[in-house]
Amino acid sequence: MIKFEKVYKRYDDKAVVSDFTLNIKEGEFFVLIGPSGSGKTTTLKMINQLINLSEGYIRIQEKPISDFDLQELRWNIGYVLQQIALFPNMTVEENILIVPEMKKWSEEDMENRVIELLESVNMDPDKYRHRHISELSGGEQQRIGVIRALAADPDIILMDEPFSALDPITRNNLQKDVLKLQQKFKKTVVFVTHDMQEAISLGDRICLMNNGKIEQVGTANEILKNPANDFVRKFLQTGLPHYQEEKIVQHLIDGNYYSTTEIPANATISVADSVNDLIILLSKNEVVHVENSEDSSQIVITKNHLLDFLAYEATSSKEAEA
Ligand code: ADP
Ligand code: MG
Question: Residue ranges of the ABC transporter domain (predicted)?
Fold first, then answer.
């Protein structure tokens, strides 16, 4: 769907994106993650030609982006930014309809679209459509930012750290909305974040960038299970410690995420240690032995146990909020 072939972006002689080759599939929720300055925004903006690439090709449905009419390309790619780029003096409805207006949709189609989109994020159309943007909370504004990107039914949505300025609860709710919207409208989404937890909960696949280069591409599972190199391992270690900080290894035991086998284990952890310590140990070891004074059986936790536990936690925390 969106294919990068040996793409480079240089400023003067310095490459900020190098040798970037990647194929984002149709309907995929694709996450670009990496430290600040790693080239995420540059990569995203090259897709809708807000930044021109220096070398290589980006193709959308096989066609090089340079062959598209620029206006058409931008209209067919929704774009959501961290700093809310809505027009404060216009109403919610006027903001949502900017691109449909330019595309000369009929009044009836526009009317129906506004209602459909507001309802899809649980905002009562009668209550919200005529409000000014300045009368909305930050979270509501960012919801409008997201549905505005969908308004003219583009095939692709680009999102650049859209939720990083929001408080954690609002952020979590918007993540849920975005997943629902993507399933409902079946878009290809390219989503930039520097937050590993966000990447894991949203991404079908994740691309970890560093210094303009790809360190690893894969599902969250694949990356957590088999970090490609030390950079990925370190990134996971620093990126995940905020994850479920209050959780301890005992929670895995209570939930039956362990086995009692004779698998030899090189690493040992105690039931009172944090899940974060376990994540770090399991990024380097296949199996961790759990210290257990109660009886003599050998309790071990494998990468698969941990992933099942994290997946369960992720789903149940989402459901608790719903
Ligand atoms: P990220 O979004 O991952 O934080 P960016 O894509 O914004 O990273 O930037 C990648 C690198 O490119 C950074 O080192 C940044 O300083 C550099 N850069 C971005 N825009 C320009 C520019 N217009 N001129 C020179 N360097 C730039
Ligand atoms: Mg950026």
Answer: 2-236
Which atom in ligand 1 lies closest to the alpha carbon of residue 9?
12
Judge if pTM exceeds 0.90: no
Tell me whether domains 2-239 and 243-321 share a fold.
no
Residue 258 CB contacts under 8 Å (≥ 6 apart), including other chains: 252, 290, 299, 300, 301, 305
**Closest C-alpha to ligand 1, atom 25:** 11
12 pocket-lining for ligand 1 (C-beta < 6 Å) = no
Ligand found nearest the CA of 43: 1
**Cα torsion for 48, 49, 51, 53, to the nearest 10°?**
110
User: pLDDT-based confidence at 48, cuts 50/70/90?
Assistant: very high
Give distance in angstroms: CA of 32 to centre of ligand 2: 10
Under CATH, which number does the domain 243-321 receive?
3.90.1280
Query: Domain map of the chain by residue range?
Result: 2-239, 243-321
Probe ligand 1: pick from 8, 16, 213, max atoms within 8 Å of CB? 16
Atom index in ligand 1 nearest the CA of residue 11 equals: 25
* Smallest-distance ligand from the CA of 81: 2
Provide the pLDDT for residue 32.
97
pLDDT in tens, 98-117: 999 999 999 999 999 999 99
**DSSP state letters, 146-175:** HHHHHTT--SEEEEESTTTTS-HHHHHHHH
pLDDT of residue 297: 66
34 lines ligand 1 (CB under 6 A): yes
Q: How many residues does the chain have?
A: 322
Atom of ligand 1 nearest to the CA of 44: 6
CATH superfamily of 2-239: P-loop containing nucleotide triphosphate hydrolases (3.40.50.300)
